Amino acid sequence: MKLAVILLSLVVYNSTAAYPQISYDFSPYGYLTKYGIPEAERIKEAEEKIHSSERIASGSPAASGQFKYQAGLLSEIIGIPNQRGICGASLVSPNRLLTAAHCWFDGQNQAWRLTVVLGSTLLYSGGTRILTSDVLMHPIWIPLLVRNDIAIIRLPSNVQLSDTIGTVALPVGALSTQSFQGEAAIASGFGLTADGGSISNDQFLSYVSMNILSPLECILAFPLNARSSTLCTQTFGGTSTCRGDSGGPLVVQRDENPVLVGITSFGLAFSCQLGYPAAFVRVTSYLDFINKNL
């Protein structure tokens, strides 16, 4: 899967030997036109021709119903007719989803309507499809700095839960204070599967397992943008989130049930397979915002 990670040209020099000095292009600023629309077009063409384009880098294809809470988003953008951007989201109640704020407004482009795709491993066919323009971004979302990159999508009515559509738990109780450092987590999405790669012709929703880094390691990896409210994962063997995965879920397992701990936010552009960390919104940092609007 290509978990969305991308953007604005900023030069950041990492202070650790683990992450050599390179040029970073990772802010969600301008995401919808820079990556969202091109990836959506590639996926559409791939599905139409049974040919493909890109998503979770080196990830595994997901089976129907494996990630019941995973939603695909196709965004219609003001001033850009006949083209749609791509993102992911997580169903947290029958009528609420969590996604990245930059999937709705990226600092340059404003979406005006979303098609929410549930219960399908394909983005353009199958499953349940719901239109909505009711999106609540965090009130202090700052695209240039990637601060508070979270939004709540409100559906017009409750979606019917089934074998392929379900909700994911939030990290409540004792989980609300955990860092999840060192734990294995799973990210899923409809995005790229390789740098310059192509979407497979049999499955379009993919997933990958990654380890969660400590808050300090996260800040050292992204010194300009990571905060205590950022969660980072370490990638191995060329597996990571990539372009088109933005807004999608990162979960850990508790009693064999998934718990949502991250929302795909940013990373290195065109470096999905280079072993650099990927950054997510830390869900526990926004439980007040989420619970007030469920």
Automatic annotation (TrEMBL):
Name of the protein in its database record: Peptidase S1 domain-containing protein
UniProt cross-references to CDD domains, sorted A to Z: Tryp_SPc (cd00190)
A biological-process GO annotation: proteolysis
Molecular functions per Gene Ontology: serine-type endopeptidase activity
Keywords: Disulfide bond, Hydrolase, Protease, Serine protease, Signal
Signal peptide (residue range): 1-18
UniProt xrefs under InterPro entries: Peptidase_S1_PA, Peptidase_S1_PA_chymotrypsin, Peptidase_S1A, Ser/Thr_Proteases_Immune/Dev, Trypsin_dom, TRYPSIN_HIS, TRYPSIN_SER
Organism: Euphydryas editha (Edith's checkerspot)
SMART domains, sorted: Tryp_SPc (SM00020)
All residue ranges annotated as the Peptidase S1 domain in the record: 56-294
Cross-referenced SUPFAM superfamilies: Trypsin-like serine proteases
Entries under PANTHER family matching the protein: TRYPTASE-RELATED
Family: Belongs to the peptidase S1 family. CLIP subfamily.
